[in-house]
Write a structure and sequence with these properties.
It is built from three helices and 20 strands. With 243 residues, it is mostly beta strands. Strands 11-12-17-16 form a four-stranded antiparallel sheet. Strands 1-9-8 form a three-stranded mixed sheet. Strands 2-3-6 form a three-stranded antiparallel sheet, with no helix packed on it. The protein is globular, with a radius of gyration of 25 Å. The chain starts with a helix and ends with a strand.
Length: 243
């Protein structure tokens, strides 16, 4: 019995040794239902294998992602349709006689955003990395233009008010808890089943990555003083940031 158990362990360890681990990931730590997310699997091994078979006289260049950035990853846009914890992976496959297995990622998907004027500040987490996410919706205003003949055209889709700036964190807080600006997304959202010409909303999402330094204390309380361009009469509930 002991010999049989030992043999199983050897087979298991050999199988694990022969498998090559691949990393999967997404570009949004806590997406919302219906939001497009870039999903990627690192496939450097495939590039190396093809390059080897092409020979030294032919060079295999890097691929291009949907964002125009060069990448050796397999990338596709995915959309989550369920609120709460979603699991992706692990995936197993075989290539040229070698077994490959990916990691598993867990994504906490948020409810679909409600189309009304609002400012939402939240702390998101993915793979033990924390982020501050600021989302803001502003109702567009109708835009009217008069041409050289005196004819008036009204664009009901509208734009955000002139000189409007979305809320964001100030430079002092970014230095205090060491934040990196990751990206800003701006787009126009329209109500479902909306008719042509209805006024929509200007939407902004800013994401910051939190880098906790050795000097960081137990917690930091995020309050209104840490922001600029807050809407008038807006009251932010204090948000506690911990390691």
């Amino acid at each position: 019995m002991k010999k049989f158990t030992f043999l199983i362990l050897i087979i298991f360890n050999l199988n694990a040794f022969c498998q090559n681990n691949l990393k999967i990931g997404i570009d949004n730590p806590e997406p919302r239902v219906g939001e497009s997310v870039l999903f990627s699997i690192n496939i450097d091994f495939l590039k190396d294998n093809i390059q080897e078979k092409l020979g030294s006289e032919i060079e295999l260049t890097r691929s291009t992602s949907v964002h125009g950035m060069q990448s050796d990853d397999f990338e596709r846009v995915i959309v989550f349709n369920k609120v709460g914890l979603n699991k992706v992976g692990p995936f197993e496959f075989e290539f040229n006689g070698k077994k490959y297995v990916t990691n598993q990622i867990k994504i906490n998907v948020q409810p679909k955003i409600i189309l009304e004027e609002s400012l939402i500040v939240r702390v998101a987490e993915f793979n033990d990395q924390k982020y501050i996410v600021i989302e803001q919706l502003v109702k567009n205003i109708a835009k009217t233009e008069r041409n050289e003949f005196g004819e008036i055209t009204t664009y009901l889709g509208g734009l955000a008010p002139d000189n409007f700036e979305f809320a964001k964190l100030n430079e002092e807080i970014k230095r205090s808890i060491e934040l990196d600006d990751l990206n800003t997304l701006s787009k126009t959202l329209m109500p479902e089943n909306s008719k042509y010409g209805e006024i929509g909303f200007s939407y902004s999402r800013i994401r910051y990555r939190i880098n906790f330094s050795k000097e960081f204390k137990d917690e930091y309380i995020l309050t209104e003083k840490d922001f600029i361009n807050l809407p008038k009469n807006y009251k932010l509930k204090p948000i506690i940031i911990k390691k």
